[in-house]
Specification:
348 residues; alpha/beta; Rossmann fold
Length: 348
């Protein structure tokens, strides 16, 4: 069944309305939004920031089922946009991206091919001499890593940044179970959120971490966000507000994006949950930065450490944010931007 065709008209209408809503506050000289067609999908790309720097960061959102515009707001994005051009991509079947294709045909290779094509397009559109970096958060760390290993995208890039990236789900689940055990026992002993931690502990004690089912994997992910909330307080992501971005986020696109994203997520779930790229990380030969939050139970920092140790380049860095969970760009925005900027400026 061609499931995504059902949503094509709805998405087009909502995307058009969102553009109309934003037109009153967008300054055309500072950003650009456009479609890029590739293999049956019309991918939405938003470019914001300092294009005159000739440094572009192609950011892959989390999910599956997320969107680029979720990352196009808050202090960290605005600080990065002051220095660089940030490229927010709605990956295939997610956000405002459209298409007429079978969800049963979705594969990680198809997402990887999209990423490589977008990178090549950006070089043609903005100039072959631009410095292009690839960054992936959460599930975007999986699609980004897969693209680096299974396409020729590395030849277009100056560097790769994995922000709490999930490049190996089976290994991620094993590390998460170990992390749950450790913190649950410690926090129960301290008398903190005892019933909540006990629920998590009871669950993971019944999980075979070497053979995690799809249902258990989903519950590990859910409990990961819960556990983080018991340990991480506060955020500096809202230090500034951009009216254009908030207008876009509050537009009618949101319900359609959620609907389409859920369909895409279901179509790629089985391959995502089985994806294990650790043994192939040696194929990554470009400068690489691995960032993780100390209290990230969704994608434990041990996974980033594992990737750091195995990539095939000596030009690599690893940093843990000690007051963050899954999204240090929000909880420690200023420190996050400093680390990212230092890496970009070193290898541009």
């Amino acid at each position: 069944m061609n499931t995504n065709r059902i949503y094509k008209g709805i998405l087009f209408l909502f995307f058009s309305l969102s553009l109309f809503a934003c037109n009153e506050v967008i300054e055309p000289d500072t950003d650009e939004r456009f479609f890029f067609r590739h293999k049956g999908a019309d991918l939405v790309i938003q470019v914001d920031g300092n294009t005159s720097s000739d440094i572009f960061v192609l950011l892959l959102h989390g999910g599956p089922g997320g969107s680029g515009h979720e990352y196009n707001t808050g202090a960290y994005s605005e600080l990065l946009e002051e220095k660089y051009a940030m490229v927010y991509l709605d990956q295939r079947g997610q956000g405002a991206s459209q298409g007429s294709y079978n969800t049963s045909d979705l594969t990680l290779q198809l997402f990887s091919d999209d990423i490589a094509a977008v990178a090549q397009m950006l070089k043609k559109k903005y100039g072959e001499n631009i410095s292009l970096f690839l960054a992936g958060h959460s599930w975007g760390g999986l699609t980004g890593t897969h693209a680096l290993i299974n396409t020729d995208v590395q030849k277009h890039l100056k560097g790769w940044m994995e922000w709490d990236g999930a490049h190996d789900i089976p290994l991620l689940n094993r590390y998460a179970v170990t992390m749950f055990h450790k913190y649950a026992r410690e926090e129960i002993e301290k008398g903190n959120f005892v019933s909540e931690w006990q629920e998590i502990l009871d669950f993971v004690e019944g999980v075979d971490s070497l053979n995690v089912s799809l249902d258990d994997g989903g519950q590990i992910n859910s409990f990961g966000f819960d556990a983080e909330s018991y340990l991480v307080q506060g955020s500096d992501s809202g230090a500034t507000e951009n009216p254009r971005k908030w207008a876009f986020l509050s537009s009618p696109i949101a319900p359609a994006a959620m609907l389409s994203g859920n369909v895409t997520a279901s179509g790629i779930q089985a391959e995502t949950e089985a994806a294990s790229l650790t043994s192939e990380l040696g194929k990554i030969q470009i400068p690489s930065l691995f960032l993780s939050g100390k209290y990230d139970f969704v994608v434990p920092p041990r996974l980033a450490q594992s990737a750091f140790e195995r990539v095939g380049t000596n030009e690599k860095e690893f940093h843990i944010f000690k007051n963050s969970g899954h999204s240090p760009m929000d909880t420690e925005a200023i420190a996050f931007v400093q680390v990212v900027s230092a890496f970009i400026d070193k290898y541009k």
